Amino acid sequence: MVSSASLLADVFQGSDLQSEILRNSGRSELMNSGKSNKPPDGSHRAEPQQLNSVTKITYQRQMERFRFGQFSHGDKCVISSRYLPNKREIVAAYRNKAFCGTYSQDGNIFISACQDQKIRVYNTSGDRWKLLKTIQAKDVGWSILDIAFSPDSNYLVYSSWSDNIHLCNVHGENDIHTSLCLNPSDSRFCIFSLMFSQDNREILGGASDRCLYVYDRERDERTLQISAHGDDVNTVAFADDSTHILFSGGDDGLVKVWDRRSLSEHNPHSVGTFAGHHDGITFVNSKGDGRYVISNCKDQSIKLWDLRHFSTRQAQEQTMTHVAKQLWDYRWQSHPKKDKIYKPIVGDSSIMTYMGHSILHTLIRCRFSPEFTTGQRYIYTGCAAGNIVVYDLLTGQVETRLSGQRACVRDVSWHPYDNNIVGTSWDGSISRWYYFNSSSDDFDDLGQIGQKKPKLLDQGRLAGWQL
């Protein structure tokens, strides 16, 4: 486990992850370009700032040093990284805490869930967000806690403190609002996290009774319930589009890996476990390649894991021991080690640890940045201080901190194709961050590559969305 950016070379040097991120984000092309332009006497070595210069990239394209004189995907990612979102606009404001907010896979729809028991569906394909429909949630205890799109974006599913999860249609004149019963054993029950399989057939959930649940849509019944963790299962995810490998994270501080093909209620065994955190896991997110996954934790850190390197049994036992000694409650208390760093757990197999954000009050989410605009160069997370924090995946450094929302940012969603990030906050706001350049230099328009220029909505429109 390494948390210092200065040790980057020791951690990632020559690794396939480093090569992949550098290639996909265009940085390897620039480094090669820089090397080819170095004078033979070695008198000058191009600095990273020069290699990443938009002026240099544009010049090289004009000189046809790039293939066919066009920007490659990597080139576009490099340019996009120079124009990370920096300005906020409030696209929706509610009178209650907003818990969830996410883009669809094509980025044309955004859904939010609020403590007022309403799910709002927005069309985001134009310059302005347009409210398509408002769904009144059923059987809500305290709040809607999670929502998820189906892969085709035609349906959404949501959960709360209830024996049921609920399936709704996104499009169409006739509303569908179906309760899917999970038949749990506990009288007080909640699905904290849920997700559709990529083939649209199953819904995966992690629950307050320490179990994983799978609901089969075709059979219209729960098909799997397995005891997964020693405490609440706060988060679940699929490793890739195959839907065979599953991740789960719990309040026992462990991230577990499961193979859907061999799961059995009678003899549930994970294929591997990641251990190294000191407190409960709030969220896991897969890179989508079936190999890398990140975990957000109440110990105020994110860790990056590799499926080829599971943790030892000793590390698992140490993690559970550390978690059992935690006497604070993150829902209303400050973190007891606010200005201290935990002593590393022996056997921690994480590749990198990212610190600089705050996990308090609720299950805050973290995610990999999108492939199309960033080459998955970044990891970004919500924060209890009202920020969105963006880390460089390879260095661990904070690339930008987007501040402005007045309460905990619980959910974050980076548009899959446009250069904007949405933060969903307990101050009741849905805020979209985009790049804004107040200067009039020649490259102002480059900041809008791959994104539509946002237009602020008037207060009357915002007031209308509160209904």
Tell me the layout of helices and strands.
Layout: H1 8-12, H2 16-24, H3 27-36, H4 48-51, H5 54-62, H6 73-81, E1 87-93, E2 98-103, E3 109-114, E4 118-123, E5 130-136, E6 146-149, E7 155-159, E8 164-169, E9 177-181, E10 191-196, E11 202-207, E12 211-216, E13 221-227, E14 233-238, E15 245-250, E16 255-259, E17 272-274, E18 281-286, E19 292-297, E20 301-306, H7 313-324, E21 352-355, E22 366-368, H8 371-374, E23 378-382, E24 387-392, E25 398-403, E26 409-414, E27 420-425, E28 429-434, H9 459-465
Antiparallel strand pairs: 1-28, 2-3, 3-4, 4-5, 6-7, 7-8, 8-9, 10-11, 11-12, 12-13, 14-15, 15-16, 16-17, 18-19, 19-20, 20-21, 22-23, 23-24, 24-25, 26-27, 27-28
Q: Structural class from helices and strands? A: alpha+beta
Gyration radius (Cα, Å) is 22 Å
- The count of β-strands is 28
Number of helices: 9
Residue-averaged pLDDT, rounded?
85
Outline the biggest β-sheet. Answer: 4 strands, antiparallel
Strand order of the largest sheet: 1-28-27-26
Helix content: 10-25%
Rough shape?
globular
Structural features, described:
It is a single chain. The chain has about 475 residues and is of the alpha+beta class. The chain has helices spanning about 10, 15-25, 25-35, 50, 55-60, 75-80, 315-325, 370-375, 460-465, and strands at about 85-95, 100-105, 110-115, 120-125, 130-135, 145-150, 155-160, 165-170, 175-180, 190-195, 200-205, 210-215, 220-225, 235-240, 245-250, 255-260, 270-275, 280-285, 290-295, 300-305, 350-355, 365-370, 380, 385-390, 400-405, 410-415, 420-425, 430-435. The strands form 7 sheets. Strands 1-28-27-26 form a 4-stranded antiparallel sheet. It is globular, with a radius of gyration of 22 Å. The termini are far apart. The relative contact order is 0.14.
